Every structure is written in C-alpha cells, then in structure tokens.
Predict the 3D structure of the following.
Amino acid sequence: MLTPDIPSLITLSRIDRLPLAIGLYGAIVLAPAVRNALDESPPRPRRPSTCAVPGKLRSIRNARLTPDENQFVKRLLKSATVHRSEAECLALARRPGTTLVLADREARTIARSLGLCYTGVPGLLAAGLRYRRLTRADFRRALDDLTGVVWPSSDTVSAMLSVAR
C-alpha cells in the first residue's frame, strides 16, 4: 500500500505515473487531509495544481484514521512543523505494509526517525525501473517529465541518471 503526501500525488498525476505507483504497490490510499485538500482545491488558471488529480482517483482508496492514529497526528502537530496532511500520512505509514511517498524534508526526517518505509517520486520511478515496470527509455522520459514539473536537486538528477545506466 502506498500513501503519498499532496505534492507527491500531484507530481505523480502530472507526470502520468499513478498507474505505475498502483502497479508497484497494489493500492494508493489517501490520508483524509490529502483527500480533503484535493476536493477543496479550486482550479487556478495557468497553474496546474490539485485540480489535475481528482479525475484520476477512481482506483485510489480513502483511509480513515483510527483513534490511536488521530492521537499520533495530534502529538506530531504539537511537536513538529509538518502539515496535518503529512502528519496523517505518517500515521498511516505505521500500518504494516505501507510505504510513504514524501516531498517534505521534515516529514522524511520524521519517517526515518520512526523507522517507517518511505521514498520520494524519484525513488518510485527508480523502483519502476528496478522491478521492470519501466524500460530504460520510459524511465528517462519519466525523469524528463519530472524535471518539467518539479526542480529536483542536481544530486537527485545525477543519482537518477546513474540508476538508468
């Protein structure tokens, strides 16, 4: 099961890699705050945003947090500088078999400290290549698409290109 934060979900949608994510992880499950943000996002002219995602969500499930997960979210919001959506994703990642896709540095730091399984969009693309869900040519196209949507660091791009060799 894969649980993406808002920026990662939007990025996967904009580079048309939601089917890859589902193929690799079996299911995408959205935290309630992630789904609410998508539902409430007004379309903005000339700036693709969350408005590009909702039509692609038919095969994506919505999660409900347990009382224990809600308490975990409250504790995180008091002690860390993450948004509610990231805190809920972190709470869901405590479930067995869940992998997070995170764009936020602090959320990744928290995930690492909790021993949670996480990746970023570049790591998900690399997994697609590693598990032969993407050819090398598809991987390079996906990387080109990614750099057209977000601005990964030069270190990230170099690492991604070395994966493709």
Remarks:
- The chain has one domain: 2-121.
